[in-house]
Every structure is written in C-alpha cells, then in structure tokens.
Amino acid sequence: MAVWAQVGVGTSSPAASSILDVTATDKGFLPPRMTAAQRTAISSPATGLIVYQTDGTSGLYIYSGSAWIPQASWYTNAGSPTSSFTLVTPAGLTSGANANYGIGANALNALTSGDYNVALGYDAAKSVSTGADNTAVGYSALSATTGSGNTAFGSSAGAGNVSGTNNTFLGQYSDASPNNLTNATAIGYGATVTASNTIQLGNGSVTNVNTSGTITTTGSVGIGTTSPNSAAALEIVSTTKGLLLPRLTTIQRNSIAQPPAGLVIYNTTTNTVQGYGGSSAEWLNTNATNAGSVAIYNNSPVWQTFTATSSENITSVEAYVQMINSGQSTSVIAKIYSGNYNPNATPTQTPIATSSSTSVTASSYSWKSFSFSSPASLTNGSLYSVVLFNSGSDVDVAQATNNPYSGGSRFGDGFTEDLLLKIHAIGQWTNF
Q1: Any bridge partners for residue 68, and if so which?
Q2: Residue 324 lies inside a defined structural domain of this protein
Q3: Does residue 222 fall inside a structural domain?
C-alpha cells in the first residue's frame, strides 16, 4: 500500500517540497548509530544514505554511490579541474600531536606526532610527520618537507626543501637547493637560496635593488648612501669607518681551493693587500706619480730590479715613454733577467723572456706595451730585472717614487725613483 503525502514531525504543516519535515526547538535529529564494521556490512547502500559511526574516526558518513565519505570530506568538488575544501584528520596522527592545523586536500596528511604545524593549501606540508613548527601557505608549499621550523608562503614555495630546518621561503617558486639547508632565506618569485645561513633576494632576472628607500635601475647597492654610483655594483660611503678585508696568513691564503680571479684578502704574514689574478692577465703594480725621466740612449739600456711577491708568469710589460726629439722614431724591446742585470757581465747574461719590438714615435709621454711570446716564469721571493733596450734615437722613460712593487732600485744606482712600469702576470696572488 503506498501513501503519497508530506510527513511532519513536530509540525502540522510540513514544507511542500519535503517528504519529511522534522521541526523542533529542543531536540535534534538522531540518525542510525553503528560501528564501522556495521556500516560496511550494509548491503547495497543507497546513494545519499547517512549514518553516524561510533568507533574509529567517528562522525557522520554519507554514501556517495561508490564509497562511504566521512563528514570531514563532504566539502569536495569533484569537477574538472578538482578543487578541494577539506579539513581531514591524518590517518596516522597520534594523541601526542599538539596544536596542528591543516586545510586543503593532502595538507599535513602524513602527520603523526609533530607539533605546532600549520598547512593551508593543496599538498601543503603533506610530508611532515614528526616535524614541528612548520608553516606552509599555498599550493604544494613545503610539500616535500620532513624537517622543522620552516616557513613558506606562495605556490610551490619551499617545494624542494626536504630535511632542511629553520628556512624561510617567500614568493611563488621560492626554494632551496640543495634540499637540506639550515637558516636559509629565499625572497621573491623563483628565488633559490643555495647555502645555509644566507639570503637570496630575487631570481637571476632581478636588476632593480631597493637600497635605503632608493630604487636604482643598475643593480647598484649602497652602504652609507641612498644614491650609489651607477658605475659601481657596490659603493661604500663613510668618513669614520673603513673596509675591513678578510685577514689570512700566507698558509691560510694558499689553502683556498680554486680562488676566483679578483679575490682580495689582507695577508697578515706580509702585511699587504693581495688579489688573485686567476687565468687572465692582471696588473701587478700601478704607478701614478711621475718624478722625472731617464734616457735610453742608443744601445745603452736602462733597467729596474724587483722582487717577485709570488710565483707568477709575466706576460707583458708597459713603460711610460716619450721621444726626446720630436719627429724621430725608434724601436724598443724589453727583456726579463734573473737577478741583478749587469751589462758588463762575462759571459753575457741570458734573458728568461724577450719581448717583441715596439715602435716609439710620439714626442709626448704614452704607455707602450712589450709582450712576451713565452712568459717569464718567476719564483716568489726571487730578484729579477726588467731591461729596456733602444736601437735608434734616444727615448725618455718616466720615473716614479714609492713604487709599491719595485722591490729594488733603478739600474743599481741606489736612487729612490723607479722606472714607471706596469707588469702583467697570469694566475697568482699579487701585492697591490
């Protein structure tokens, strides 16, 4: 017998659209209560069937037509693409885990005993089990993390961090590589920090740096100034402080593995500022003060002694020269000798390097370069001489005082002036 009507419980006028209208202000609706075993034993449950499970993960369960869905997972849109709005208790969570909060499909779903973790977003901190104090906000943020104390904001922020601890990632795809860093910070889209205890600001495409409220478009950074020079990558301005370089002994300096060209230190053994030349030619000394000149007469050489401050290969020498008589020309060559040069030595001394011939025609001073096809190999601490020979009209070579690299005297006469020279060398530590 079938009866078609609305049924009202606690009301004499059930809603027209309802089959059953239960109305009360002091009582609730009590669905069937059963254990998980009893629930799963229901034969051919109807889609939409609701029961309350009393054991295991207790709560309301609804049958979707293919599976029983706990109440915590009711708020899932199974459309394409799938979006999830869930707050699910991880299956392995222990009673000892404290103050954890996860929202989003798979958020914190591996958690067992970790404390004080917060995860908001799909796959956010999904691998954290025993880790603590992690905060992940964004799709896949800290998705591989098992460590503690990490903070990530942004889609896939910190997704590559695994066992690292106390790291901070701010921005989409901000990350760490390798995956086990400590106290590292990456800020900005795609910023990747590569070492512990360091900060990476922006990715490789960033060219604008905000310094003390001033934005520069050259990548310049200023310390003590809000407007660093556009030609400087770093400008330091101070009238009360200096720049303190790393201080190393010679032994410590030599233990640096594969120093790059341009590396600068202060050598406490020799009390000198030193730079590394790498594999390219670098200045060993620079001279700024002219103090007169000395003439190279026809077939009468002049020379300058110096002591090598490291084992190096001289590739070229420059001299600051001029013709004595305007309108004339001559050819000059440079040679490098071991020890003090003696033009009257018997037998004649043999140079360790000889340059190509360089023409000098101008009447005013200019730098002339003398290149050695076979570089002169020097030994640290040994004495050498740079000798200039002239085959024609007389030439003046400028002199300088306080030459920092001379290490000797001009052609052995005891004068304080040195020939105004620049020396190029390859790949060694050099005094400035």
Answers
A1: 63
A2: yes
A3: no
Domain identity same for 261 and 387: no
Structure tokens at 226: 């809000």
Q: Which domain holds residue 272?
A: 247-276
- What average pLDDT does this structure show over 396-400? 70
Distances in Å between the Cα of 137 and the Cα atoms of 155, 159, 217, 269 are 8, 11, 32, 53
Q: Do 301 and 266 have their domain in common? A: no
How confident is residue 416, by pLDDT bands cut at 50, 70 and 90?
low
Same-domain status, 370 and 268: no
190, 174 contact by CB (below 8 A)? yes
Residues 263 and 388 in one domain: no
Task: Measure the CA–CA gap between 387 and 337, rounded to whole angstroms.
Answer: 8
* CATH code for the domain in which residue 326 is found: 2.60.120.820
Do both 256 and 379 map to the same domain?
Answer: no
> Distances from the Cα of 121 to the Cαs of 102, 143, 154, 159, 424, in angstroms?
8, 10, 10, 13, 60
Which residue in 162, 158, 200 sits closest to 175, CA to CA?
158
Quick check: 58 pLDDT over 70? yes
Q: Which two tokens stand for residue 219?
A: 């990548």
Together in a domain, 268 and 302: no
pTM, rounded to two decimals: 0.43
Find tokens 């209560």 and name the residue: 33
CA distance 31 to 232: 75
Residue with the bigger pLDDT between 21 and 362: it is 21
In a domain, 265, yes or no: yes
| One domain, residues 260 and 374 | no
Using CA atoms, how far apart are residues 384 and 421, in angstroms rounded to an integer? 14
Query: Contact 161/147 with Cβ under 8 angstroms?
Result: yes
C-alpha distances in angstroms, 201 versus 76, 207, 426?
38, 11, 34
Compute how many other C-beta atoms are within 10 angstroms of the C-beta atom of residue 279. Answer: 9
Q: Which amino acid is at 185?
A: T
Query: How many residues are there in the chain?
Result: 432
Tell me what pLDDT residue 182 has: 96
Give per-residue pLDDT as tens, 234-249: 788 889 988 888 999 9
Are 331 and 361 in the same domain? yes
Q: What gap in Å lies between CA 430 and CA 116, rounded to an integer?
A: 55
Report the first-to-last Cα separation within the chain, whole angstroms.
109
List, in sequence order, every residue forming a beta bridge with 333; answer none if it has no partner: 389
Q: Is the pLDDT assigned to residue 322 strictly greater than 90? A: no
Q: Which of 27, 48, 73 marks a domain boundary?
A: 73
Contact by Cβ (8 Å): 420, 400: yes
